[in-house]
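Table S2 (text version). Query chain:
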Amino acid sequence: MTHQTLSHQSTRIVAIGGGHGLGRVLSALSEHGSRVTGIVTTTDNGGSTGRIRACQGGIAWGDIRNCLNQLITEPSVGSMLFEYRFKGKGELNGHNLGNLILTALDNLSVRPLEAIQLIRDLLDVRPHLLPMSEHPAELAALTAEGETVSGETHIDELAVPPTRLFLSPTVPATREAIDAIANADVILLGPGSFLTSVMPPLLVTEIGRALKHTHATVMFIRNLGKEIGPASQMSLETMLTWCERAMGGKEIGVVIGDKNAPQLESRYQQKETKLASSNRPWRHDRDKLRQAIDEALLDSHVPIR
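Corresponding structure-token output:
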């Protein structure tokens, strides 16, 4: 079966994560259209997003905005406005207009999801984007010394990995995210910052429970280089164990990366393929990533509806 024919089948794909990594995956799979759903981390507390949350409250919009930016296929006035970042001095310096637009639409809507749908329609984005929760929460970590550290930015500054992560407060999942997981044929985790992008959605109790009971094949996409921050000291096997624990014991079936990890248990099916962009070796090439995922779907005999 060719890559071209696979692209037109009805496999339902759910990708989970945040920031640049999830946006890259969704962009690579954009030809699958509405059969692709991204479940996005909403705990960012840095930069423009953090400043907006500090004065307005609400969920973090930065990761959702980043995914939308990478899914824009046809440049337009609307897309240019959405990507615009203010410069200069004063209150607006550093703010991204897309974050402000999403915040304004959220204030005008009954649900944050309605704001996302409006922007999807405006920018002609076909894949679905769902916040992990429509309720604000902070990512928190417990250190080996028993100290609680709150906020993604502070967790990224830890000298060593925490003993565990949790959300504060506990928040419910977006119900559409639970439905998407229940109907998925494949679940993709990563790439991206492991502790602050990949893990937060898995910490939402209902998402973890839905993943535990899903019949979908779960795949983990590795980063191309070593992370900066505490996750750089975590082995691949430790990361997979953290994910499986958060998913109630659901096993990851496939690990996709640019090289195999010989230390992994044999129960993990590894797919080794070249994924790096030709001009940015730390970034996944969209076409190579799409082909790798499609081949992994075929190799894993993912059911076609």
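Notes on Table S2: The chain has 13 helices and ten strands. The domain at 3-44+126-299 is CATH 3.40.50.10680 (Rossmann fold).
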